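Quick illustration for those who missed Monday's session on complexes.
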Amino acid sequence: MLANKTALVTGSTSGIGLGIAKALARQGANIVLNGFGDAAGPQAEIAAMGVRVGYHGADMSKPAEIEAMMAYAAAEFGQVDILVNNAGIQHVSRIEDFPVERWDAIMAINLSSAFHTTRLALPAMRATNWGRIINVASVHGLVGSADKSAYVAAKHGVVGLTKVTALETAATGVTCNAICPGWVLTPLVQKQVDAKAAALGISNEDAKKQLLGEKEPSMQFTTPGELGELAVFFCSAAGNNVRGVAWNMDGGWVAQ
Ligand code: NAD
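Prediction with nicotinamide-adenine-dinucleotide bound:
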């Protein structure tokens, strides 16, 4: 379905980004990976699916590095047809204790990076009159939770940016939508499980149950693979006129 398309997924060396990259590769898209840590493993895994794969290690908090990544993708793959803004970090703390540099980093990585990649990807998408921009927001783009001020503010910002991007491209073949996951058991959430287990002196399994029990009636984590299939849907012809939605996949979190 996506043969001859190129997808760039930020923060795709692990977790949800890697799950989305694999789902798009399964549909035949070439993939540009980005993120920190081990890139060789994910690169080999995706290459084995028979598509072209590239990697750029740009730090999403740095606009100049984002520009270099977009230039690399254009030079190596022609253009970015599918842009998945996924890179993100978390910090959990009350507002009055929130480290200022963590606030700035979360705003830069979770929100501003999507502005930069989008502004740089749009001209080529408009020129071919086809494109998909998928912003990985969060249920925290729709509702709040205590102690996550920067994350919730940034993710609400991502949902807003998604709507504006969708409106500015509404009469074209470019669409922009957001995915809003609930709990997904990635390294980002494992840290929160570990913190809860340590704070309450309980086992890892009990900490997971508590975390789910606070928010998700399904008592199940959403998986990167399931989120990847939602991204595939947005890229399909059925998604041609899906514009500016913030689609939660969250075990009932925001239905309450
Ligand atoms: P993760 O920690 O497994 O992966 C994050 C990825 O982003 C990694 O590849 C990491 O290297 C990369 N990254 C971090 N900082 C970066 C930077 N400055 N520049 C470039 N890459 C950077 O986390 P995840 O849970 O897969 O999160 C992915 C996205 O999904 C994030 O935007 C997160 O907010 C969102 N999300 C996660 C959950 C969840 O429950 N895990 C829920 C809702 C939304």
